[in-house]
Design a protein that fits this description.
Length: 127
C-alpha cells in the first residue's frame, strides 16, 4: 500500500541521492524541495520512499497577442507591465510565474529581460 506524508529532515539524504543520479534533474538540489512557500510530500510503501512531490503557489500565464507580427509593440507592452505583474504576484504569496511558449522570440525576451528560465517549452520565473 502506498501512503503519503510531508517531507521530513530524515528524507533529505534519499532525495539528494536520487537527484544526483537523475538525468532529468541535473543541477537540482534538495533545497529546491524545501524552498519557502513550497510544500513537499513523500509517497512511500513498506519498502521505502518512492517519489517526492513539490508544490508551489504558481501564477500560470496564458499570453495572446493581437498580432504576432507587431513584435515591437508586444515587447513594449510586456516590458511596461510584467515587472508590476511579478511584484503584485509576489505580494499575494505567489512564488513562481510559469507559462509555456514555442515562440522563440518571446522565450528569448522573457529569459533576457525578465529572468525566466526555460526548458521543454516551459518558462519559469522565481519570485
Amino acid at each position: 500500500m502506498v501512503t503519503d506524508r510531508f517531507l521530513e529532515t530524515r528524507d533529505l539524504p534519499i532525495l539528494e541521492k536520487s537527484l544526483a543520479h537523475d538525468v532529468h534533474h541535473q543541477g537540482t538540489t534538495a533545497d529546491f524541495f524545501t524552498q519557502y512557500g513550497t510544500v513537499c510530500k513523500v509517497f512511500e510503501d513498506s519498502e521505502s520512499p518512492i517519489l517526492f512531490v513539490r508544490g508551489a503557489k504558481v501564477l500560470r500565464l496564458d499570453i495572446q497577442f493581437v498580432s504576432n507580427e507587431d513584435r515591437r509593440r508586444n515587447a513594449r507592452a510586456m516590458v511596461t507591465g510584467f515587472d508590476d505583474l511579478a511584484k503584485k504576484a509576489k505580494e499575494n504569496g505567489f512564488t513562481e510565474i510559469i507559462f509555456n511558449s514555442s515562440n522563440e522570440s518571446l522565450r528569448k525576451l522573457c529569459i533576457k529581460r525578465f529572468g525566466f528560465v526555460g526548458s521543454d517549452g516551459e518558462l519559469r520565473r522565481y519570485l
